[in-house]
Amino acid sequence: MNTEFQQLLEGRPALQKLVQLVVDVWPEHESFLLTSFKSRTPDLLDTSDAMADVVLRLAAGREVQVAKDYVWLCEQIREEEINFARTDAYRYSTFAETNANVYSDDAFMERYMHGLLYSHVLWYMHVSSLHFFRQRLGARVKPGGKVMEVGSGHGLLIYLTLTELGMAEAVAWDISEISLAQTRHALESLGTADRARYAIQDMHKVQPDAEKFDLIILSHLLEHLEDPVDALQKLRHAVAKGGYLFVNVPLNAPMPDHLQLWRDPADVIKLLEDGGFRTLEIASHTTQALPLPKALKRKIAVTCSVIAEPA
Amino acid sequence: MHTPAAKAGATRKMKKDQMERSEITEQLTEIMIDVFDLDELDYRDDLSAADIEEWDSLSNIRFMVSVEKAFGFRLSNSEIESLDNVGEMVDLIQQKLA
């Protein structure tokens, strides 16, 4: 790392370690990372350091391999970005296609999940959405409640709800036993497994008498579905009175397993409205902290974070 | 004023006659002004990402795909990533149109 980068990360040891791991395997990426970190406020750098500590604990014993998988992930996304620039569409449009080409490929999925783990810290839009989650959702959610996340993957958001947001109990839903096992393993590694439960549950099949939750999280999930509106409508049954829905969805973000292409934050508000939810707060986190109008005009990836309630 | 589509059509029509280098650079300059949000650009063969603040890994893909659409051919991924300056891009366009 050059001197400017070292000074920027001074006093943030987890962040220093993570960035160094990646720069060691991909020196050409340093300028991209420096731009990303120079855009961050001191508060956002604090969140970055806290999340770096968590992801390094999750990667313990295979930190270098995960760094290599991050490089591989960026190569995959580059392919998708070229395709997106040429076609103005995502590569696949049905679950059958993503299932055949992505989800059923265990080796691909392992590298994909590893690469995404570090992206939570290294990509401005991802860490900025985590910061929004800590700050804005933390200001609304009452401690002691019950949270449920669908497709919780690395378990980062469940971990934050149980530790920083002070929620008492968490439930992870997924349609895949393997994915649930990954979340369980992650929460065990982070020391919060004793307050978590795991259930095979298809959210399209939630019934009106379903278990109720004070907070439901759908982070980078709806874009993978063929019918996200139906999923939202069914999930309303599981929101407790006074409860919230937290959603992260991407705009213009070509990934091999994304089906739903949204292009503007207004599309996201409309999606939630169609699904029966009223948006209370929305924040747009851009790639490399680009001004939002510029990112939208150039069709560069944005993550929208939404706090909503049943309409 | 020519529309982009009309220009692309005209470019394809000119392929047989081999575009002059100056015609290619003129069209490339227009593409760069659009993609990199520039007010104006003094073209030089040695212009590179180091000279244009907005030319980064994100906008490079848009630049290359705009070139593909304007000149009517497909670049390989290695070609997209290997060019060091716009002069090399002009050479490549001439090769592709030859």
Describe what is shown at a glance.
The complex is a heterodimer of chains A (311) and B (98). Chain A has helices at residues 3-8, 13-25, 30-38, 42-58, 63-87, 95-103, 106-122, 124-140, 156-163, 177-189, 228-235, 265-274, 292-298; strands spanning 146-150, 169-174, 196-200, 213-219, 239-251, 277-286, 302-310.
Describe the structure.
The complex is a heterodimer of chains A (311) and B (98). Helix content of chain A is 51%, strand content 18%. The model of chain A has no long low-confidence stretch (mean pLDDT 96). Chain A folds into 2 domains: 3-122, no CATH class; 135-310, Rossmann fold (3-Layer(aba) Sandwich). Chain A is of the alpha/beta class and 311 residues long. Chain A is built from 13 helices and 7 strands. Chain A has a 7-stranded mixed beta sheet with strand order 3-2-1-4-5-7-6, sandwiched between helices. The model of chain B has no long low-confidence stretch (mean pLDDT 83).
Q: What oligomeric assembly is this protein in?
A: heterodimer
What percent of residues of chain A adopt helix (DSSP H or I)?
40-55%
Helix content of chain B: 55-70%
Task: List the domain count of chain A as a whole number.
Answer: 2
Which structural category fits the helices and strands of chain A? alpha/beta
Listing every helix as H and every strand as E from the N terminus to the C terminus, the arrangement of chain B reads: HHHHH
CATH homology-level superfamily of chain B: ACP-like
N-to-C span of chain A: 49 Å
Low-confidence stretches of chain A: none
CATH class of chain B: Mainly Alpha
Query: From the 3D coordinates, which CATH architecture of chain B would you assign?
Result: Orthogonal Bundle
Radius of gyration of chain B: 13 Å
Q: How many strand segments of chain B?
A: 0
Compute the average pLDDT of chain B: 83
Radius of gyration of chain A, CA atoms, in whole angstroms: 18 Å
